[in-house]
Amino acid sequence: xxxxxxxxxxxxxxxxxxxxxxxxxxxxxxxxxxxxxxxxxxxxxxxxxxxxxxxxxxxxxxxxxxxxxxxxxxxxxxxxxxxxxxxxxxxxxxxxxxxxxxxxxxxxxxxxxxxxxxxxxxxxxxxxxxxxxxxxxxxxxxxxxxxxxxxxxxxxxxxxxxxxxxxxxxxxxxxxxxxxxxxxxxxxxxxxxxxxxxxxxxxxxxxxxxxxxxxxxxxxxxxxxxxxxxxxxxxxxxxxxxxxxxxxxxxxxxxxxxxxxxxxxxxxxxxxxxxxxxxxxxxxxxxxxxxxxxxxxxxxxxxxxxxxxxxxxxxxxxxxxxxxxxxxxxxx
Length: 332
Ligand code: BTN
Prior knowledge:
By secondary structure, this protein is of the alpha+beta class. The chain contains 10 helices and 15 strands.
């Protein structure tokens, strides 16, 4: 049997036996009949499933599915994914330079809105402002979503904070600590960064070609996985909870929440979500310094408006800012 045929059989057997969780053994004879195969070929398929790091138990009569593998393969992500469209096309890789770069290439080549690109590791994961996004193998979620909305380019910036909201809502089910959104692109837990968002827009004057939404989430990183510099500013779910989390569950929940927020955004912008965004905000009420690239403005962050812009108050005047790097000014 060719390797590809063996993999196909193993995949089909896996899909079948995992329905029978709750301690139900599936007999070899029933599998042989169902898949029109023989005992040695079936045994090979079961070995392959174990090689994929799924936990199954075999005895003389049959096989029992115990636990899924923590791999971000297209099959695993698609299994029980509860979205309408998002992630119905998945490109999953072991190692890539950057999922955002692959997503841009695919979007330009005609790939559809809602396509998801995911990798177990990135060698040159891109962060904002030309920084690198630390992406060690199998520790985090590194994913990019292709969007091709019909709204105009001026509505694109709000997508970042909308994504942050979907992330914050998803992380709620995974930890009890305080979750915050740091305008415009970061999600913090206990004041440290757990996830970052990099949106990249390709547009003409009045028309968006595509938006790539890149998301990095620190999940099973240990403290020592971070550089000394990052140790003081970054965290992971594992550090917070003192135990590992299932990446696949968080990924599926995030895709579901992202789709929900995106559908609302396409209808009404941030109108329906702004209250929650404000509630999660780590900046509202704080004295901040905004690095604009050319200018630095200091003021009090008083609001995030319905376009996703940060409102700063300085000398009694309100200033609306759409992008920039914000730090909270600590009073001694
Ligand atoms: C930031 O906070 O600076 C943004 C980080 C974004 C990282 C993600 S990981 C998946 C996607 N691919 C990339 O190269 N970057 C984003």
